[in-house]
Structure formats: structure tokens, C-alpha cells
Amino acid sequence: MRAHGCLMLMLMLTAGRADAASGDPAPRSDGSVLHVDFEQYADGWVGPLNAGVRQLGDPFTTIKQKEVRVLRDAGLAFEGERCAYVLTNMGDQRGRVILQRRFDAPEVSNEVIEFMFRATHSGAVDLEDLVVWSAMGYTRGMTGITVYANGRASEGTYSLDVQGGGDAPGRTTGVLTGLPQGDWVRIVLARDQAGKAVDLWAGVSGKEVWVGRYADLAPEIAIGRAEFGDVSSEASHGSGFWDSVRVGGALKDAGTVAPSESIRDLSKELSTLEYPMPVATRRQLFVDDSLVESMEGLQRVFHSVTKHAGNPIFKPERPWEIGGTWYVPFDVLPQDDGQKLRLWYGCYRRSSDKLTYTCVADSADGLHWERLLPGYVEFEGSKENNIFWAGRGVKVNFDPRDPDPAQRYKGMTRVNGFTRMSSPDGLQWSMETEPAVTQAYDASSFHWDPVAEKWIASCKIWHDGHRARGYAESLDYKTWSDTCIMLDADEHDQAGDQLYAMWFAHHESHFIGLLKVYHVSVDGCDLQVAFSRDGMHWERPWREAFIPNSPEEGAYDYGNLDAVGDPIVRDGKLWFYYGGRSILHNTPPQDTNGSLCLATLRLDGFASLEAGEAEGVLLTKPILVRGDSLFINADAQAGEVRVEIVDANEPEKVALHFSRDACTPINADNTRQAVVWQDTRALTELHDKPVRLRFFLHNAKLFSFWTE
User: Fold this and answer.
1) Cα separations in angstroms, 416 against 97, 300, 439, 456, 647
2) Is residue 211 part of a domain?
3) What tens digit of pLDDT does each residue of 345-402 get?
4) Distance CA 278, CA 284 (A)
5) Total of domains in the chain
6) What digits encode the pLDDT tens for the residues 546-582?
């Protein structure tokens, strides 16, 4: 085809208007900031940073969209099998792609940007201000230059315009003209931040020529994001293919290009556990096989909660709480000595889906709640209310480790993704100007990991149009990692199920995930459980409801349940607060709908290993005993439990003094029972020696074990 030769001729003619810089060869980018070739893009995932793609189209807007896709077709891509594609052919449509650098990618000065672009694969289209390239800071506004394509289908060509900045910002039209719509063009932008300018090269790959020098829109802002396609809902439209996008420093001779971006899928990874596993005061739960070597004559039984007979224990009643749509309890946190509890909750106003009154209430016993009257926010002419924030809802965390008293309470509010907030008392809040977590949607939550000593986030993401879960982390609550894939519904779920939300809570040896599962077939949401050793890699061995919906239509928790805070140990049980709604998920409320509810569970009672008349035997994986005494949580009132300690490498070799025959039978129901051998020796002599435990159960249930 003759178009390549014509293209080169037109480029050279256009470049003839330039100054001496026109002779400079086009630099290449090392891709150290961003390298997106789309080859590792995971189809269907929206929300996590998907191989460098932050957003493909506008999935949560009502604006019409034609086509925004990452295509898999070697005949369409410039290299490999994949490229990005946008098509909009009417002014009221929008179709754009947003790329974003990794959170830990370097910032470089004088970035070099390069990418491949063509308007069509075959045929021609009308192009009106289609954005070929527009760069932004990581969280701030536009930087560099913006390049537009304009052209007519009847002519089969297009031209490039450049929008620059400086003291007299404006557009330079027709910097290149007559470009064939079906030909790939490499576009190279080289920033000169000291000179506050951007040099532009373009041409057939390997034969690019300098086009011109343009004022940088914001030379002080490093490139963190880029968007291209139809970014206006008014007049822009057209089509385009993009491939091999790189942002970074200038590639040096014999330099290495950074590898292309990939997406991490935690659900396909295995949690890494090291054995022998130290066993100290953290109770080891039997919710999974992480410490189970073998079982004979035992079955694992999972347990649901018992709902409080006095539910609901708190519901909307005051004028600022009613007359809206939803009452949603956000969190319950212990105060002072741990006996007093404080509840943060949101009342969503009918006047605006963005306005939420976040309120507080206190309780001395966890059952009866009293609204505080801090007087911070005016409602209908009065500050006599318990509202402390009017805006988007505030999801609260308490951090006693922070040396700054003003940062002890940390929060997230859903503004530009999620934006960080801070408070000295949980009532008086200040909000940051830049978002902290951009790759997450509404049903997201933020938690402290006491083992790894970091913050972790459970992020709402999407997969093929349904809700799923993502993961992000932070050491300081300020700078967060990119969101990656964590958990999705699978073949063991009911048809159409979606993972709507998941609250993390660390309990003893495990993270407990209170997983809000949306059953699309019945339009209701219950709470199931998931388990993890590290808060990243999760197992869902039980798919029944941990906190079920009421079967009675219109009951306080009939339609839609939400987890509220970590479980709290009270009266020898685990207390779970949860939000209940009396209507189904998609039923519009007549008035503010929702309430705070309570359910309880035996301490460590998520799962038990159980034996009947026939004896059951459990052999653990290798452990290191850290305490002087062994304890178990068991119900053996109708039978007995005995324990022996054996050599880790030779399980048939019983440790001296710690045999089954020497063990005093346990035949009670108690959440804390000491295991005693006849000569009452302490376990000190076993410290740092890998051992295993062998449990013998008869008509008994074993929930956990630990040492002290």
C-alpha cells in the first residue's frame, strides 16, 4: 500500500517548518513509569489496576457508550495479540480508556512517552476531537500536551492538533495533516521540564520525524495517568486503536525496557505458611487445614450465630434519621476500658444520594444506645443532634499506635474513590484534598492487620458485570498499593451470586471475613464467612449463611444484611453487630430503612472437629510450643478429649511424659480448659523442638487449642 510513503512525505513537508531541533532523532521510552502493551490485560475485571488499565470505558455512568474494549486479535494489534479500541459515533456517547502507573512506579523528570495509534483498521470514520493522548498527574490535573485527531471519512485521512499550555495556552491545529486513517503511527513526546516544553515526533515506526515544540500544560506535574478516546459527552466522537504505550525516561543505548504491566490475582495464589508453626497465646482455629495433617473419624462442622432476642437494638427515630432512604451502621468500636462501645452510623438523605448524615451513639452494655449531642452540624436550624459529618459517609478506624493524637481516629469517605480523613476524637474531622484509594467502589472497608502491622482494604471491584472483591494495603493509611483481584463468586455459589462486600476482622490465628453475598435470584443479601491466615488469600469452605436473613417477609433483617465492625468478646462469647433491612435489595424504601442488630457465637465457635461414639483422631502439622501449658476450647461433657505430644518427624514416637495414657481426660464444656498430664510437667522442655499434637475425641467437639 502506498500510504506509508505518502505519510513520510507529508511528515517531512510539515517538519520543514520547524527549527534546528527537527533534525533530532526521536527518543525511545524505557517504560519505567508505565508500560502497557495490553497483552496481560484480564478480560472482564473493572476496578483493580488491570495490567496498567485503570478504567476501560465508564462502567458506572448513564452516558451512552458504543465500544470500549481491549481486543484480542493479532490482525488488529500492532504487536502481539492485544490492543485498546474505542468507537463512538454520536456526540452524546463517551468512550475512553484511562491508564495509570503503579503506586510504586518511579517518578522521572523529562519523561519520554511513546505509543502506537491508528484511527481505523479498515474503512474510515468521521473524527471530531478524538483524544489521541492526554496526560495527568497521579492525582492532580492535566500535564504535558494533549493531542487530538480530526478528520473526515470521505477523505480517509486525519490531522493532529496539539493543546499546549504556558502563558498563552491554546491549540495548534493541523500540526500533521493527511494521515491515512488505517496506518499505524508512532507518536513520541519528550518533556523538557526546565524548558517548560514538549517535543513531538510522529511517523511510521522507526522513521519518526520531529514535528514541533509546544508549551507544557503543567511542567511541574509528573505523569501518573493518561487517558485517550472520546472524553467529552458533547461533541467528540471517532474511533482509534492504541498499542505499546510507554512512559518513562529516555531509553539509553543497549538499555532495557521495563516489563509490561500485569495484574495480580490473589485468588490463584496459595498462602505461604512455614512449618513448624509457632503456637503461643493466639488460639488456633480449625476452620481450615492449615494445622491439620490428618483426621480419622472426625468431621468439621461450621456454626451459625444466635440472633439476639431483643433485635433490633437501635433504629432510626429522630427527625434527621427518618425521611431518607437508608440507615446503615458503619462500625462499633470499644472506648476507654473496652466496656463502653461507640457506634458510627449513616443516614442517607432522600434529597441527594451524595448527602449522608454520619452520626454517633454510645452504649455501656452493648444493648442500649444513647445518641451523643456534639452540636457540630446544623439540621433544620438546630445543632441539637448527634450528626458530626454531613457529606459522604465516614468509615471509621481507631489507631492507638499513631504518635500524633490528631491522627488516632482515621476514616475514609467516598470522594474521588476514597479520601482519607483524620480526627483526635472520632467526632471532629478533617479531610485530605487528594484521594487515597482510587481503585475501589462503594462497598469497601479498611482494617488494621495486627500480625503484619499494616492497613489492608477490602475493595469492591467488578468482574463481567457483577460485584467481586479486591485487595489493597498501606503501611501508613496514606499511601495505598494498587488494588488487585482477591475473591470472586465461583461454581460453589448459587447461580448469579455476587460478593457485595467483605469486612475483615482478625481473631486469634485467622482473619475472619464477614462476606456479604448478594443472591440475585431472590434479591437478598446474607452474611457468610471466609477465612485467611494472612488477610490476602482466602478460603470459603462453607457456603451457608453465617448470619442468615429472617424468613419472615418484612422482618427487621429480612432482605439485606451488612457487617458492622469486628467481633467483640463479651461474656465469654463473640458479639457480632450487623445491619438489617426489612426490604429486599432493589425495593425502594418508603422511609429510612435499616437497623442495628446483634448476634452471638461461642468463643472460637466458627467451626468444630467432632467425633461421635466411634473415636476420632486428629494429628496436627509440626508446631513449636511457645508456652508452658496447653489449653483447648472443647465441648466434651458427653464424652472426653485426650491429647498426646509426638515427635514432628516420627509421629509414632510419643514425647516422654506426654502420652495419651498419661493425659487426664477432659470431659467438660469449657472455652478454656488446661490439658494436664499425670506428672504435671510444664511444656518448657519442648520449647524449640518441633512436635505434633495428637487429639483423641469421643462424643466431643474441639474448637481450638493454644499455649500459655
Assistant:
1) 17, 44, 10, 19, 56
2) yes
3) 999 998 766 799 999 999 999 999 999 988 899 999 999 999 999 999 999 999 999 9
4) 10
5) 3
6) 999 999 999 999 999 999 999 999 999 999 999 999 9
pLDDT value at residue 379: 95
Closest CA to 303 of 566, 586, 635: 635
Residue 289's H or E segment, with its range, is: none
CATH code of residue 135: 2.60.120.560
Residue 410's Cβ-count burial label (10 Å; 0-12, 13-18, 19+) is buried
CATH of the domain at 678: 2.60.120.260
pTM, 2 dp: 0.92
Q: Which domain holds residue 169?
A: 3-44+70-248
Q: Grid coordinates standing for 227?
A: 487517558
Give yes or no: residues 590 and 685 share one domain. no
The string over 328-358, giving b where at least 16 C-beta atoms fall within 10 Å of a residue's C-beta and e elsewhere, is bbbbbbbeeeeeebbbbbbbbbeeeeeebbb
Environment class of residue 545 by beta-carbon count within 10 Å: exposed (0-12), middle (13-18) or buried (19+)? Answer: middle
Instruction: Select from 586, 602, 618 the last residue of a domain.
Output: 602
Residue appearing with cell numbers 469449657:
670
113 vs 131: CA distance, rounded Å: 15
Residues 6+ away with beta carbon under 8 Å from 9: none
Is 17's pLDDT higher than 80?
no
Determine, yes or no, domain membership for 345: yes
- The grid coordinates listed for 143 are 500535564
Q: Is residue 60 part of a domain?
A: no
Element (H, E) at 599: strand 595-602
Reported as a single tens digit per residue, the pLDDT across 443-482 is 999 999 999 999 999 999 999 999 999 999 999 999 999 9
